[in-house]
């Protein structure tokens, strides 16, 4: 979004029992160290920091946000060896020994696509320290793999032993709840032709076409438009001012 918006993620920082766990979960490699005597500030490196993508051999299951917080703030939780998966249908894994001799290399990193190469002698769970969102999909050597909400804010997936190539891609989607809560076609048509917009769909503009993929942008009642014109097209009605979007 451009400009100011009051929208922000509901989950920003992962819960943690210690500062080290918190920094590890955020992949913080450096920190600032101040010397009040000398009046200096230095950049220090944290030894053994967690990478953006890493492997664990043990997972636990949480059914809701409260259970995730409880497990991740427990003294026994170690993000280097365990990941918390927030999915009641997921079956947890537990290995006799922590994952070792593994290697994860990020080969591609774009806005809607991440490529990884994973090499490991044993199966386990891959944690990717990127924000979880239902639109993300993962594939292993071309085969689709489930993506789980992991460690409160991140995403993860099970992986097989050997050398595999991963692709994560974002596919925008609208949930059933979002579709059902969207405004009705009649309301959108009425809003597009409301006096507040300064014109109507019939006043020299193309009529609104109602369909599941149509988007009509109407004026927000909080920000009236002075002398604005609603520009209508076959696929979109948009006002060139502060506005809110209404999907039909």
SSE topology:
Elements: H1 19-25, E1 30-35, E2 40-45, E3 53-56, E4 58-62, H2 65-72, E5 82-86, E6 103-110, E7 113-120, E8 124-128, E9 136-140, E10 143-145, E11 148-150, E12 154-159, E13 162-170, H3 176-181, H4 185-192, E14 215-219, E15 231-232, E16 236-238, E17 243-247
Parallel strand pairs: 4-5, 14-16
Antiparallel strand pairs: 1-2, 3-8, 6-7, 7-13, 8-12, 9-10, 9-13, 11-12, 14-17, 15-16
Structure, described:
This protein is mainly beta and 248 residues long. The protein has 4 helices and 17 strands. The protein has helices at residues 19-25, 65-72, 176-181, 185-192; strands at residues 30-35, 40-45, 53-56, 58-62, 82-86, 103-110, 113-120, 124-128, 136-140, 143-145, 148-150, 154-159, 162-170, 215-219, 231-232, 236-238, 243-247. A 5-stranded antiparallel sheet has the order 6-7-13-9-10, with no helix packed on it. Strands 3-8-12-11 form a 4-stranded antiparallel sheet, with no helix packed on it. It has a 4-stranded mixed sheet with strand order 15-16-14-17, covered by helices on one side. A hairpin with a 4-residue loop joins β1 and β2 (40-45). It is globular and about 60 Å long. Residues 175-248 have low confidence and may be disordered.
Globally, the shape reads globular
**What structural class results from the helix and strand content?**
mainly beta
Strand content: 35-45%
| Helix count from the secondary structure assignment | 4
* Sheet with the most strands: spatial strand order: 6-7-13-9-10
What letter string, H or E per element, gives the SSE order? HEEEEHEEEEEEEEEHHEEEE
- Major sheet: 5 strands, antiparallel
Q: pLDDT below 50 for ≥5 consecutive residues: which ranges?
A: 175-248
Gap between N and C termini: 21 Å
Tally of strands: 17
Radius of gyration: 24 Å
Helix content: 10-25%
The pLDDT mean sits at: 74
